[in-house]
Amino acid sequence: MILLLKKSCLIFSFCVCSFSFVIFAQDYDNPEYWAENIVAEYAQETELEDMTLLIEDLLSLTKHPLNINSASREDLERIFFLTDLEIENILYKRYVNGPFLTIYELQAVEGLGIKTIKLLQPLIRFGPVEATPGKIKIWGDAFLRSKYQLEKAEGFRKNSEGIKPFAGNPVKLYNRVEIMTNRGLSAGVIAEKDPGEPMFEDKIKTFDLLTGYLHYQSKKGWLKEAGVGNYQISAAQGLVVQSGMPQRKSSMTTTIRNRRPPFRPSLSASEYSGMNGAYFTIGFERFTFSPFFSLKKRDGRLVADSSCISSLREDGLHRTSAELEQRHNTTELAAGGRISYSGKWIDVEAGHLYYRLDNPLCPEVKPYNQFYFSGRKNQNSWLSYVISQRNWLLFGEIAFDQFTHPAFYHGITWGAAPGFSLVLGHRAIPVKYHAPLAAPMTESSSFSGESGLYSGIKWELPLRITISSYFDYYRFRWLKFNADAPSSGFDWMGVIEKDFDNDATLYLKCRHREKPTNITYNSAENSVVDLKSDQIKGQYRQNLTGGWQFTTLLQWHFVNTDNNRETGNMLSQDIKWKNTKENLTATLRYALFNSSDYSARMYAYEPDVLYMFSVPAYSGRGSRYILLVNYRIMNNIHLWFRCARWKYDDREETGTGYQLVRSDKKTTFTAQIRVKF
């Protein structure tokens, strides 16, 4: 601990201390770099790894900016960092004063700060609505990525029988091609294999994952949208269906309404989420109707001497003989439709979903899971609404399981005063409510039986200071995993941000959580106590002339129960540099961490290649080294190289089972090439 503090002081002397969110106004000529930095800030606060959808939306808008004078609420909702109130105020200002002529006029929009306006600059345009595009234009890009771990895991070593448990080589491969046109047509294909998975063999004849999509979208005519292949689906607040990236609590404390589009084509590498089938949307004036279906293979753990599956696997790994036997051994069907009405101040949506598995789900019954979904079939219906007025927005969803067990999710966003907004949300989900494809914003991923009350604020103060905070109280009406009694808890977070005129930013986050958990006091019986967790994160980021940027991050994590205390701390220093031509970028990170237990682990967003997001857990005692280089050979050819290493001081081996590495180090190399056409 003393050694860690000494090293920390040496790095920490590089900068001042603590906090962040940066405006990269000078990077509009390099949209990939600009978009990644914006999404990175959201990624490190949500602890989610798949942020591909967000960065794809931003890059798409940089190529085809929204016309701010004709954009609808749905169009503006694609910009994830805009709050509901900011969107409503933009639309209201346009309605009262007429079209915006320049970006400077956005400063008159209530609640729209300078920082947000700068972020909007490359995503919007001004002027009259364009006529129908003339000559057809086609563009796209192709990715090839490879990842390799230097230290050999046990799965790649021969066992006592001279057989390697993993059937494939240790290289991870990722290929992706996407083509778009100015006529609303687009198509894409993705192929991927994980380390240890075989390819072009009898067990897996091509890549382990090989999928794609064909998509059409238009704002004119009765056919608004149609898609075939891999796609994401979202409805209301996610009480019935939500694939892709779900809504989560984050430092964007007043953004709790699910604003994902109902459908979108997907090239996600996730093998368990998403849909695989077809959908289309037809529209007449303010009404739209969208039927959809999905038929995809899923991995299931079969119960011995039975056609039942104990659970559906979600890791997407097919390396060992057992994993290969479980590969695509059951079929998942999802079909339904949605109908919506969009008015001047109200949007209403209703829908129904039918779900079926070929093999019935028969989990091992335990006290906490006896009300989980089981069997073969399920049906859900939903009704949702969004009501918007001058400075407030009311939204909600009512969902049913088998036309019974109603679940509720309602919220309101209110612009109480200039620069101050408030959001309230309430959820109530019955214990017997089942929705296999749902993902609402809840405390527990197994959300049945959870109720809660969420409140959040955002307050923009003078001197470019912003305060954000939320408080979320929740109750579980039945037992949960590791909580053998009905229980309750709460989650509080506060964030202070300060932007300086010298292109520097301070950021401080504090989070306190009290969550029920089992604990044993020298007996075979469990008692439920509150697990108290306190996290403090501080970051300072400074942009300097010559293309230099320095970011210092400090984290502390304290975990307490009645008779135990675990601690964790972390310090990282990032140095980023761009040359004057802005075709070469290099990022270096050095981090030191020390946690007494895995429960006191810390998460930190890491720089990675385009469309790759890494938010690993820092646990144990050791250091982390990362080098990332991005070189633009030509305007249409980009190269990335990344080297990352864990070095542990408290162990001689890392990992467990087939992932065991007989070393205190773990080193990975990633190379990626992108060709734009």
Number of helical stretches of at least 4 residues: 7
Structural class: mainly beta
**Biggest sheet descriptor:** 24 strands, antiparallel, barrel
Rg of Cα set: 25 Å
Low-confidence stretches: 1-28
Percentage of residues assigned to helices: 10-25%
How would you portray this structure in words?
- The protein is mainly beta and 677 residues long.
- It is 10% helix and 47% strand.
- The protein contains 7 helices and 31 strands.
- The strands form 4 sheets. The chain has a 24-stranded antiparallel barrel. A two-stranded parallel sheet has the order 1-2.
- The longest helix has 16 residues.
- It is globular, with a radius of gyration of 25 Å.
- The relative contact order is 0.11.
- The N terminus is likely disordered.
Provide the fold topology:
Elements: H1 2-12, H2 31-46, H3 52-63, E1 66-67, H4 73-76, H5 84-97, H6 114-120, E2 124-125, E3 138-149, E4 171-181, E5 185-193, E6 209-217, E7 223-233, E8 263-265, E9 275-284, E10 287-298, E11 300-302, E12 309-312, H7 321-325, E13 330-342, E14 346-361, E15 375-388, E16 392-401, E17 404-417, E18 420-428, E19 450-461, E20 465-476, E21 487-500, E22 504-520, E23 526-544, E24 548-560, E25 565-578, E26 584-595, E27 602-603, E28 617-618, E29 621-634, E30 637-648, E31 665-676
Parallel strand pairs: 1-2
Antiparallel strand pairs: 3-4, 3-31, 4-5, 5-6, 6-7, 7-8, 7-9, 9-10, 10-13, 11-12, 13-14, 14-15, 15-16, 16-17, 17-18, 18-19, 19-20, 20-21, 21-22, 22-23, 23-24, 24-25, 25-26, 26-29, 27-28, 29-30, 30-31
